[in-house]
Amino acid sequence: MNDDDYSATELGSHWFEGPTPDPTPDRVEGDVLRFGPGVTAVAARRAENTPTAVEIWHGTLPGAPPPPPPRRRRPRRYALAALVLVAVLAFLAWREYGPRVAVRAVAVTAPERTLDCDGTANVVGVVRTDGRPGTLTYHWERSDGTRSAPLRETLTRGQQEARLHLLWTFHGPGSHQAVARLVITSPTSHAAEGAFTYSCG
């Protein structure tokens, strides 16, 4: 560097002065210190229009329309459906667990003609009912002193008649006045009998 070209520059006095002390506030309002002209009207309006976190969370933004009122439930809309459901369930329960089959009449039909040697008689018991579903419990009693085991007959809804058969077979010579008796033990007690003749000479 050429010393002839170097020249010192005089620094302004502000380079040597210390830091400027804090300015004194214009006015004091409570715990807030305001400096200078204060908050302008535009800034105040901007602050007023800026939503707060609480307003955003609760949905109470300034100028926003109020939230719609909660919809009231209308129980009447479901009342009819509930009544229909209850009626259907009641009908099903009545059909399944309601009154059971009732016996109205019992009759026994035996062969009209004489039964020949080693023949088999088909004795038919006819039970008339009210058409309700259920189960009949019955047995056969024969005039030779024998009795069948308890038997069951299941009736479906609408079935108003049950035909119960007894096959009675005879062997060897001789004759016999045979009587077959049908005994209904449930749902109620009923009995009927029929007679036929066996002859083998």
Written description of the protein model:
With 201 residues, this protein is α+β, with helices and mostly antiparallel strands. It has a domain of 98 residues: Immunoglobulins (Immunoglobulin-like, Sandwich), CATH 2.60.40.10. The chain is 19% helix and 35% strand. The chain contains three helices and nine strands.
Give a short synopsis of this structure.
By secondary structure, the chain is α+β, with helices and mostly antiparallel strands. The protein contains 3 helices and 9 strands, in the order ββαααβββββββ. The chain has a domain at 103-200: Immunoglobulins (Immunoglobulin-like), CATH 2.60.40.10.
What distinguishing features does this structure have?
single chain, 201 residues, alpha+beta, Immunoglobulin-like, four-stranded antiparallel β-sheet, three-stranded antiparallel β-sheet, 3 helices, 19% helix, rod-shaped
Task: Please give the structural blueprint.
Elements: E1 27-29, E2 32-34, H1 41-49, H2 53-58, H3 75-97, E3 103-109, E4 120-129, E5 134-142, E6 151-155, E7 161-169, E8 174-186, E9 190-200
Antiparallel strand pairs: 1-2, 3-4, 4-7, 5-6, 5-8, 8-9
